Amino acid sequence: MARKIQGVRQRYGKWEYRFRYTDKDGKRRELTKGGFISQKAAANAMAEVKRKFTRGADGSKLNITLVDFWHQWFDLYKQPYLTEHTRAGYDYIIDNLESYFGTNKKLADMTKDDFQRFLNAYAEGRVLKDGTQKPRSFDSVLHLIIRVRMMVVHAMEEQIIFYDWTHDVTNPGYRQTRAETMKKFLDTADMQLVIQACLRDSNQGANFKPSNYKYMILTGLMTGARFSEVAGLTWDRINFKDRLLTIDRCWSGTKKNFTKTKTDQSVRTIDISLELVKI
Hints:
The protein is of the alpha+beta class. The protein has ten helices and ten strands. α7 runs antiparallel to α8.
């Protein structure tokens, strides 16, 4: 018969530990966790909790959920410094984490296996309106891993967890072929064909009804500006005399208002060609 270990007991065929401690305000607290398949597993888990306290861990944080810690970390370290578009990317990640793990999954209970299973499900993508499954790309999954890892590193610094469960996970995202990747980009010949088509349509005379999107296409191709930057242009941002174009804001298609550029470095004044000025 196994010897009895203080703080460890068996309940309903499983093992649990109960660890008592005194918080920073001098109040007695207790951490409990069950579901272990053996007495040894429960004892090892309790020993790890004791080591955390020895290293100065705050016991009140050990029960924090994955979702709550993400929001605390994001609100303090990320949200104030991000553009609306970038914040939306972080919101999309936590929405998927919450959808998969729920709101009660403790951060301290997360494992590498848990995260890998989540990545596998995330990479499967979503079902489109026509019923087909669109898998998420390798880059999309990598983007998520990097951002979650930043949160995990902070949790380690706060001594809530003591290993990086995002390290060396497998990225199951779909890797596009070179041909598929090249479809996203215009080569020089294709770009000239698009420019010629827009110019041809804009020179139809008095019967031509201008389409703003064609001018936006031309501006983007001839300046290298992002779509949201072109959409955020107004006449006071264009210096026709000196052929200069000032980009200092974007247009948000979701909120229907002007927003900051993607980064501070994106604010710039660029030269534009005489051809673009005449258009």
